[in-house]
Amino acid sequence: MPAGSIAAEAPLERRRPGRPKGRSVVADRAQLLAAAMRSITTNGPLVTMEDIAAEADVSKPILYRTVGDKAALVTALSEFLVDRIDVAVRGATISATDGRSGFEMAVRGYLGAVDADRNIYLFVNASDQSTEQLRRLVDRSAQQLLELFTAARAQAGLDYAAARTWAYAVIGAFQTVTTMWLGDEYCDLDTVAKNLTHLLWPGVAAAGDPD
Questions:
Q1: Does domain 10-70 have CATH number 1.10.10?
Q2: Is residue 4 very low, low, confident or very high in pLDDT (cuts 50, 70, 90)?
Q3: Residue 67: what are its φ and ψ, rounded to 5°?
Q4: pLDDT value, residue 145
Q5: Nearest to residue 38, comparing CAs of 4, 6, 75, 65?
Q6: Region of residue 44 (phi > 0: left; psi between -120 and 50: alpha; otherwise: beta)
Q7: What's the mean pLDDT when you consider all of the chain?
Q8: Does 70 or 17 have the greater pLDDT score?
Q9: Annotation: CATH topology of 76-206
Q10: What whole-number distance in Å separates Cα of residue 196 and Cα of residue 175?
Q11: What number of CA atoms fall less than 13 Å from residue 59's CA on the CB side?
């Protein structure tokens, strides 16, 4: 499970940078990030900065000057994914009637969002991230789960510290399972969601039980 968020419509952007007659290339950050997502989505997570510059029809210096290096690109795309996952999870859990169903719906929402942008997810997770960057992104993702665990805290006496620990643990499980699942698709999305829920929810629900 990421410097600024990308608007949700960015992947649909098709207007390429241009060079007005007698003037320099016109290329804004949003256009170049959209080109990066197109290139990664089409060609896979192993694309290079050269590939992205070619997709955007600009030189590498322009790409680096406007977006930054690969680490900056990973940061921007990670933020984009966190935003997408947040929207998907909130939408998926809106009709939940209890803690467990809400948890399983959240798992499905997470997996669905990642599956829709699988190459971008793999590109981001194949890249090195600084400890501080990773911590910030995990904290953002954890807020969704902390909200979902509110019901569990009420039912099982789960305090905030325990809920936060479980949120981080679940994010780690999601990331590992999702990466392996995307790698060979050993089963369908529904099966992964059910398996994760079966594995993780009992522990979350019982985390406040001292026995």
A1: yes
A2: very low
A3: -100, -40
A4: 67
A5: 6
A6: left
A7: 78
A8: 70
A9: Tetracycline Repressor; domain 2 (1.10.357)
A10: 12
A11: 6
